[in-house]
Amino acid sequence: MNELHVSALTCEYKTNPLGIDVRKPRVSWQIKSDKRGTIQVAYQVQVSLSENNFEKPLWDTGCTASDQSLHIVYEGPDLVSRTRYYYRVKLWDNHRRESEWSNVAWWETALFETSEWQAKWITPNPEELDPMSEPAFLLRKEFDLKDGIASARIYATGVGLYEISLNGDRVGDELLTPGWTSYCQRIQYQTYDVTAQLNEQSNAIGVMLADGWYKGNLAWEGKSNIYGEKRGVLIQLVVHYHDGTEEVIVTDETWKAATGPILYSEIYHGETYDARLDQDGWSNPSFNDGNWKNVVVNNIQLTKLVAQENNPTRVTETIKPVSVFVTPAGDTVLDMGQNMVGRIRFTVNAPEGTKIVLKHAEILDKDGNIYFGNLRTAKQTVEYITKGEGTESYAPYFTFQGFRYVKVEGFPNQENDLSLDHFVGEVIHSDMAPKGDFECSNPMVNQLQQNIQWGQRGNFVDVPTDCPQRDERLGWTGDAQVFIRTALFNYHGGQFFTKWLRDLEADQLPDGGVPFVIPNVIDGHSSAAWGDAAVICPWTVYLSYGDKRLLEEQYTSMKAWVEYIRAQGNNEFAWNTGFHFGDWLALDAKEDSYFGATPNELVATAYYAYSTQLLRDTANVLNKTEDVKLYTDLLNQIKKYYRDEFVTPLGRLAVSTQTAHVLTLMFDLVEGKVKERVARDLNEMVLDNDYHLTTGFVGTPYLNLTLSNNGYHETAMKLLLQEAYPSWLYPVIKGATTIWEHWDGIKEDGSFWSDDMNSFNHYAYGAIGDWMYRIVAGLDMDESEPAYKRIRIKPRIGGKEMTYARATHQSMYGKIESAWNITHKEVRVEVEVPSNTTATIILPYARIDDVKENGIAIMKTEGVLDVTQTEEGISLVVGSGSYRFAYTNERGLKTIYSADSLIIDLLADEDTAQVLEKTIPGISNPHGILAQLRIHPINKLLENPMTKMTEDRLNELINDLNALEVELDSVGS
């Protein structure tokens, strides 16, 4: 039986994409094999206009000798607009096997040429309906169709946000369409398959249209109408008949317009919906629109239209509130149990005219009252006025909120008993597929990982925003670049960042400067570490997905940014001019300042070097040999200036901040003995500060990476596991379910950081995830072969409170896993390597003659291509497959990780194990039990409702653990 299969076919990152305008799309696939060490040696791709007939394909690669299974470019005849293309793949592997043809997949093109748009932009006649009025517009048209409909597509967009209904039913499930782009340069349009929604004969189409990002209130200065003053919509419905004819229905002057029940809708402020103003049946045929107003053509350039690039924004999950309570101030408040982004949907049965108000907030103050202070001017308020005709259901259409708590006003009988059954939270974000996960023996770190993922979901709402609750929600470039590698591990963000980077290029200034936010709606541009997103982000997407085309697209933008820096000041090798955010929000800042103590010139010149290095590397990938030499020489000169300016003659860094040392090490600005000195000094700074950080937005993402990569991994682990402020776990202790903007968003006494900038959902510090996945769990790549074609597995086993860790990532090639588990007697490492890749695995402190893989000596293990004994342990090169390694825990691991090794031995005692299992049944593995015992004070553990253990028994166990640790420490010494 042949167990070689082609699976997971994608085109331009998407499964069966409907409506793309890529003229040479790229296809990718994964390989499923029952044999270890499977490598593709040849492939064949066929493209056809028929799903069932590939006898005369439109394009056939033939048997092509290649191990490439990602981004295979279509090279057939020119594609035609509004056409579905079917494709299939087969392959041959290094085991001399030939697969069957894959299942057939497809892509469908949208509109390639501007001339293909017959539709016109329309808006209500401003003489009849004020374009500046707050209510959302309703627009409609009735039309008749012939019998024999074969297929139908709607191509649609709007300036403002739109939602389409066809014959009374909503079209699609996308939200906040067409998304937020640099509207003056680019406007996305969406494609919908509406074949099943059309009637033969009478039909009607309706559109709701609100301000959205296009003309609504944006940023903290209260600006509106940034892109334009008139909403507009553009719709083209194309109907194909079985007889080969087609009919086109378009937006034009024949449409009608009105206002409806949405009286007000703003991104920041919420929505007001008066159900008494519902126009029942308004998107059905035969509706009486005699009182509706006329429309006029709105002059918007069609050349700005691009087919949907990003993942659509959708409801991806629903959450029930966990409780309802009355605050000391007398407010009725829902607790969703999770700081989320989205909306509340509720059902109500109330008399006509009942006004229900929902006010959304992230946090309670120290007195237990709902806290709105950090929203600044954002109202986050939803109002609904009932129609009074039975059970009504509502959720806002054109806004979203960032919240955990919801103040409810006006709900019938809420003062007596507000039932949770009336409410559900709908989680909204760009619908990126989950791709990565991390877990370990420390439940608080696991919660941190959940916080990172929730923070990403809440802030990836079509653009990578900085916060989802206050009057900001902007695509800050600095936040995006520090978090992008973590982001691309956790979720499939290839499409997301491709779209955003095209907006960055569109908004880039003529001299190469980069605005602070993308899309650009505020004043200011070109801060170091912020503008560098122009280089760092496309390079990181390339590393994650092997997307060379994106590098080619963005190369001009990348180069323009480096040349912008080069032109600043009077020294082309330094960056010592202009405004910079520096190490934003660093804890070594002066009192009442946001700017950290690390000099701007050091931060700016370090990033100048880093962007130049990445530009040089990009030129190398794209075979731009002249630029490789140009930017290699420039990089060397920048590094020389940096060393001359910031390194003393004795080899010490002249700036004594943690961030200065982190950037110097991370960006390879020193080498040899000086590098060792800088690393040692950084480690001592952390130790002298009692294992606390002082870094801000610039230094924090790289702090643990530089420590681990320079020989101080134990210090990095202590930083991760630090519970006292400032630390990653301090917010967890305070109940955080997302990442905070400030280390002390909630202070020890329960008071808050200043209202002016205190988001409790701000993903930047979640960049620690990258270190957790790559270093702690050890799942990394060899960057010379991107997209995890060559995997690096190097687990850093142990840590004072860590006895196992596991990371998984669904790469373009398939699932990768790296997991380790340590007991007092044994080390286990589990690895999964997808087909068509290889992995280098480092087993720390292992000896060749001691390692077994599923009970077989390592030298006899199938799939192991090379084995080398090193000072670190064993270095293995393996092919694809799942591997389970085990070896004796030698003295090196015992000494370093003494506590956890002996604690696990304690569990081997059956009586103790049974007690633990009975007392804490909610924890399924011994590592989780141990972590709770060791990191929580006894009184905290006793408060845990899962815990039934007596205080005396807990004290007895803790004493046993401490005695065992002392015993081992004496052995280790």
Overview of this protein structure:
- InterPro entries: 6-hairpin_glycosidase_sf, 6hp_glycosidase-like_sf, Alpha_rhamnosid, Bac_rhamnosid6H, Bac_rhamnosid_C, Bac_rhamnosid_N, Ig-like_fold, Rhamnosid_concanavalin.
- It catalyses: Hydrolysis of terminal non-reducing alpha-L-rhamnose residues in alpha-L-rhamnosides.
- It holds the Pfam family Bac_rhamnosid6H.
- Keywords: Hydrolase.
- By secondary structure, this protein is of the alpha+beta class.
- The protein has six domains: about 5-110, Immunoglobulin-like (Sandwich), CATH 2.60.40; about 115-260 and about 280-305, Sandwich (Jelly Rolls), CATH 2.60.120; about 315-430, Galactose-binding domain-like (Jelly Rolls, Sandwich); about 435-755 and about 760-775, Glycosyltransferase, CATH 1.50.10.10; about 775-890, Maltose phosphorylase, domain 3, CATH 2.60.420; about 895-970, no CATH class.
- Helix content is about 25%, strand content about 30%.
- It contains 20 helices and 47 strands.
- Helix 6 (about 550-565) packs antiparallel against helix 7, helix 11 (about 700-710) runs parallel beside helix 14 and helix 16 crosses helix 20 (about 950-970).
- It starts with a strand and ends with a helix.
